[in-house]
Amino acid sequence: MLAERRGAAVDIVALQKEFVTSQGRVAALTDINLSIKPGEFMCIVGPSGCGKSTLLRILAGLDRQSGGTIKVEATGWAVENAMVFQESGLFPWMDVETNVRFGLMTRGVSAAAAAPRVEEALKLVGLTKFRRHYPHQLSGGMRQRGAIARAFVTDPGMLLMDEPFAALDAQNRVILQAELVRIWEQTGKTVIYVTHSIEEALLLGDRTVIMTAHPGRIKRIIDVPFPHPRNLVTLSASAEFGKLKLDIWHVLEEEVMRARAEAEQ
Amino acid sequence: MKALPTKWRERLLYLISPIALLAVWQLLLALGVGDRRFIPAPSDIALRFVQLAGSGELEWHMVVTLYRVFAGFLVGAAPGVAIGLLMAMFRPVRIFVDPLIAALFPIPKIALMPLLLLAFGFGDASKIALVAIGVFFPVTVNTYAGAANIEKIYWDVARNYGASRTVMFTRIVFFGALPMIFAGLRIALAVSFIILVASEFVASKTGIGYLIWNSWELLQVDVMFVGIVTIGVLGLITSVLFQELERKVIPWKAE
User: Fold this and answer.
1) CATH second-level architecture of A9-77+155-264?
2) pTM for the full predicted model
3) pLDDT, tens digit (0-9, with 9 covering 90-100), for B156-167
4) Given an 8 Å threshold on Cβ–Cβ distance, is B159 in contact with A85?
């Protein structure tokens, strides 16, 4: 069942980020312009060093930009955003339920009000039976489910995901990707999903931003034509998917070659 | 032989090494190695132990020693944990406290005994204060190290999920540091016995330390050994109890 597309809208204009290192200033992000519609599943792909994680951290409020503006329209949502980190970041000293409740506890939601929401989030990711487990007792995939539940329970306008499944084995990754898409189709929230895999980006997203490194900037934004609801397994095996992947790969290859030629001059 | 559960097998193994040591000791003396007047056999010590325990004298010294150890331990550990956490949370606190720790930590604590006798008199307070000082430093240093080395991702998560300073302190920094805090407390527990016995040597008429020193002056070597063994056993028991406590308090620590 497809939910109505709703969620935060994001408008990024002329965003820049510089880091000051011992070698001087390094531009991590240059001239980023991007509009994200409510309920859009936006993927950001690029090689390491292209600043995709930095962009996400700025959106999450964990880093500050050096220039440019970000406007987030998230009225009606309890919180602007919630982030799912690469290594789950579930607190080892809290059991699953306490971890999931964390974002409600910090915002002063009473235990009574939090309980049904936590219950629902646990059910959403299938961890109800593991609520009393500590993270070290769970598999990597289950930990990421917990992290997703912790993000969803806060009712954020958008979900920020930083290579959430990169550390999982291939099989678990496929399962978790399918679940994420299912959850997203049910909730219709805005998702900004950073990955280094083109295939993952095309599989999950409505649009894919392709970034290049040194300096990090947007190379191209691709509309992903596949309709929802998606079956990721059949989609990834289809000819249309293969063709799109190949097209994009050619674009990137050209870019990689040019970058290498420039570097060698 | 029926296979014991691993847990019990390990506990049994834990007891074998001290028992073996005692057996070898007894055996060597029985074979005529060593002078029994200066090195009493485990059986002699056991006999004296029963005598002293029967008269209630040993228990009295034990209670006094334990009281001083635990009082000093608590008085020293509580501010140690608090200051260690504050050092990790607030840079100015660390900059302020660091040189004090660097300067005061290496001072042999027993060297402060005369000062504390002046301040607190000859009673329990001076001994408790000395133990507290000895406990404070390792606990502070360990707590700080534990809190400062909490992985960056947990700070990021806490910030992204809207944690206030109070929540950071009570739910993230404290629990994140807890395994290291416990490591510090275990060191401190051993340190507190060492310091207390030393202080009872020089500045007390009660306690196991006094019992040992007094029997040395009277050349009652067997009583001396009773004192030494008692301290060892007390140390062992408290350490085991402490490990159990740790298991209860830190259930997330992987076995």
Assistant:
1) 3-Layer(aba) Sandwich (3.40)
2) 0.82
3) 999 999 999 999
4) no
